[in-house]
Amino acid sequence: MLKFSMSKQAGFTLVELVTTIILISILAVVVLPRLFTQSSYSAYSLRNEFISELRQVQQKALNNTDRCFRVTVSGTGYQVSQFSTRNGAVCSGTALSPNPLYTEAFQGGAQLVLVSTNSSNFSLDFDIDGSTSLACNGSCINVIANDTVMINVSSEGYIYAN
After folding, report:
1. DSSP secondary-structure letter at 157?
2. Mean pLDDT of the chain
3. Please, which contacts does 51-56 make with residues 24 or more away whose CB atoms are closer than 8 Å?
4. What three-state secondary structure class fits 58?
5. Residue 58 has pLDDT above 80, yes or no
6. Prediction pTM value
7. Given 3.55.40.10, 3.40.50.2000, 3.50.50.60, 3.40.190.10, which CATH number is that of 41-161?
8. Local structure of residue 9 (DSSP, 8 states)
9. How confident is the model at residue 96 (pLDDT cuts 50, 70, 90)?
10. pLDDT confidence band for 156 (50 / 70 / 90)
């Protein structure tokens, strides 16, 4: 009697290999760049957050004519303070609290830069009409992260994204 010995070979089929290579290439193109770099949305997120913050402080200044509110920006973050008096569009007097109302730190090397002076250290005071102490109309603040986006302030006090 003849015996045929058929050895079974273990391995993958061509379809399985091609499918695996396609999945790995999709992951390499789409997912891996997002894991190793900051998202390009960080500038947009910071811009939207800071515009919301400025509008909130502007509303506080409009509603509290006896107090002054200031947003102080530094290279590492910003803080909001409240002062006892105002002199036109500039906060004066003493701070009502030795500590700011709140402080927010920038993440991942992001920063805000005032366009007119190219400085990352500046402050914004709001007068009773809602306009700021900034001497600009239009593009006033650069938000720098992976991308650079602008914050515009109109002479009437309207704060908006570019």
Report:
1. S
2. 82
3. 51/151, 51/159, 51/160, 51/161, 53/78, 53/80, 53/104, 54/124, 54/151, 54/159, 55/159
4. helix
5. yes
6. 0.69
7. 3.55.40.10
8. P
9. low
10. confident
